[in-house]
Specification:
Belongs to the pterin-4-alpha-carbinolamine dehydratase family. It comes from Tumidithrix elongata BACA0141. This protein has helices at about 10-15, 35-55, 80-90, and strands spanning about 20-25, 25-35, 60-65, 65-70. By secondary structure, the protein is α+β, with helices and mostly antiparallel strands. It has one domain (about 10-90): Gyrase A, domain 2, CATH 3.30.1360. The longest helix is centred in the middle third of the chain and has 18 residues, at about 35-55.
């Protein structure tokens, strides 16, 4: 069963509960800054574990203590409820 793409109104409503996330190039995006590379990599590992449990994988970018995350459901052709759910889980880490 395919996951449906959310409307702009649905995305806006979901993002109202997320701090620091934005829609950039059709993806949910957030940047994180950590004390050092080890802390950043540890965070990425936690994100990877949460994502694997959901079978929904983010686009992760890391340079030293900076991590950028983009969330999009490729099968839906845009942002889906899975992206909002994963964003909430990431914020909980």
């Amino acid at each position: 069963m395919a996951i449906p793409k959310l409307t702009n109104d649905q995305i806006s409503a979901g993002m109202a509960q997320l701090a620091g996330w934005a829609v950039i190039d059709g993806k949910l995006h957030k940047a994180f800054k950590f004390k050092d590379f080890v802390e950043a990599f540890g965070f990425m590992t936690k994100v990877a574990i949460a994502a694997e449990k959901m079978d929904h994988h983010p686009e992760l970018y890391n340079v030293y203590n900076n991590v950028k995350i983009d969330l999009v459901t490729h099968d839906a052709g845009g942002i889906s409820a899975l992206d909002l759910e994963l964003a909430q889980k990431i914020d909980g880490l």
